[in-house]
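thought: user wants a sequence for this fold. calling inverse folding tool.
action: design(structure=
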């Protein structure tokens, strides 16, 4: 992402904040995993969105129309010894020269400097609750000023939730963000292809997960979330993470995996037969999910409401379950009674962006939000038949299917960022047959 893009975002936010306000954002803390080992560092999404600054122990401050510069950053000093152990730091000079700060100070000086920046401002924009220890410090700085107010100092009178403004900005993706999300999607598409090529009876779920890791990392992308590789009935566990079972002949495998590139997530699910051929029961359910997916994507057009794709998916799935005999009764009544929830118990999608479940309100007041160009969401209907569901014919039990794609709303039809990945059962069977013919040693595990 170019430096200009971050500067443009800061300007836009400051325009909305107004000139008597100040915004304070902390970087994400480092999190200890065990012993001397930390979790891989992931910058806070809001902090990243406004700064692009990749280090921990930093605080960004936006001060609209401040004469000496409106963007101050506190960060770690250069330190040759620490840098020898842990890697390079930008330092205060780097924060100005490389990240566009108007001023930068060592993070250790924040208690002395920040109160002075707050002093003449009426409103403090801050996201409370995200980093509780930092909240206490912000409150401490403001209270410190209030204690001196009797000496004639102006002090901030109001804390305002920064997320209302900032998360609305993040909901509308710019051209540069859409380009990054398209690349993130393309990497995840290729990784899913690798898994379809490798799958065979006897292959372990974690072996397919490993294909994703390799494909993501070789593009300098990370996993956006722990990949879900669920063979057979494991596909019915929505957040299955063990990925430890062998894939069995005659089962489906459900894979939900996406990467994070330059901070932006992709999120794709495909469900395909381990042996390369869908059974009649698997195909019948799969085709219902596929039809629901198509109906939901058609509903991702500007002017429609957030819930319209979900309503379309619910209608199609309920109809499909009735025609296959898994639900009995009138479609309208089954929808009203939410009978489909025994088989489809999650929503049809979520916003997608820097966070996999991205920020942005789904409702405005009581009404579902209207879809507008630049919004990106997932479409991910599914059918999951509990292995122990004795109310349905045996051949359907234990089948879990989801089809998930990433969709950008445009002025016209939906732009499916992950469209390059096949999803029709005929295409999947043909693809798997062709890759087996090309590389027969794939079935070594069988
Ligand atoms: N992978 C998380 C989700 O699909 O929402
Ligand atoms: Mn999703
Ligand atoms: Mn997913």
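)
observation: tool returned 446 residues.
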């Amino acid at each position: 992402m170019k430096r200009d893009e971050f500067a443009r975002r800061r300007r836009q936010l400051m325009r909305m904040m107004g000139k008597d306000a100040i915004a304070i954002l902390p970087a994400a803390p480092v999190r200890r995993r065990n012993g001397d080992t930390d979790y891989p560092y992931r910058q806070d999404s809001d902090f990243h969105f406004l700064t692009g600054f990749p280090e921990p122990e930093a605080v960004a401050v936006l001060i609209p129309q401040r004469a000496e510069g409106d963007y101050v950053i506190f960060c770690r000093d250069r330190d040759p010894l620490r840098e020898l152990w842990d890697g390079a730091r930008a330092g205060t000079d780097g924060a100005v020269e490389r990240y566009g700060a108007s001023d930068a100070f060592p993070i250790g000086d924040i208690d002395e400097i920040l109160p002075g920046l707050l002093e003449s401002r009426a409103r403090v924009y801050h996201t409370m609750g995200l980093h509780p220890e930092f909240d206490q410090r912000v409150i401490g700085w403001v209270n410190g000023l209030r204690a001196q107010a009797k000496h004639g100092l102006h002090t901030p009178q109001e804390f305002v939730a920064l997320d209302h403004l900032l998360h609305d900005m993040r909901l509308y993706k710019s051209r540069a963000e859409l380009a990054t999300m398209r690349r993130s999607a393309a990497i995840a598409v290729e990784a899913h292809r690798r898994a379809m090529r490798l799958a065979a009876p006897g292959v372990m779920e974690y072996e397919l997960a490993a294909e994703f890791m390799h494909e993501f990392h070789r593009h300098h992308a990370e996993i956006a979330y722990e990949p879900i590789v669920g063979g057979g009935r494991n596909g019915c566990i929505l957040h299955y993470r063990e990925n430890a079972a062998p894939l069995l002949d005659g089962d489906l495998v459900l894979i939900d995996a996406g990467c994070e590139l330059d901070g932006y997530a992709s999120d794709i699910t495909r469900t395909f037969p381990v042996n390369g051929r869908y059974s009649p029961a698997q195909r019948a359910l799969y085709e219902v999910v596929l039809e629901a997916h198509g109906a939901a994507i058609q509903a991702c057009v500007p002017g429609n409401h957030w819930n319209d794709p979900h309503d379309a998916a619910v209608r199609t799935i309920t109809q499909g379950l009735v025609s296959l005999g898994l639900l009995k009764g009138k479609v309208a009544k089954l929808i009203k009674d939410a009978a489909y929830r025994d088989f489809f118990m999650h929503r049809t999608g979520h916003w997608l962006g820097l966070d996999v479940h991205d920020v942005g309100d789904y409702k405005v007041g009581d009404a579902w939000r209207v879809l507008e160009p630049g919004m990106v969401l997932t479409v991910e209907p599914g059918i999951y038949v509990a292995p122990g569901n004795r109310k349905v014919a045996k051949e359907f039990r234990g089948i879990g299917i989801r089809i998930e794609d990433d969709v950008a709303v445009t002025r016209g039809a939906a732009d499916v960022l992950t469209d390059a990945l096949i999803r029709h059962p005929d295409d999947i069977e043909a693809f798997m047959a062709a890759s087996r013919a090309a590389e027969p040693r794939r079935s070594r595990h069988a």
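thought: summarizing for user.
answer: Here is the designed sequence. The pocket of manganese (II) ion (ligand 2) is lined by residues 267, 350, 378, 380, 404 (CB under 6 Å).
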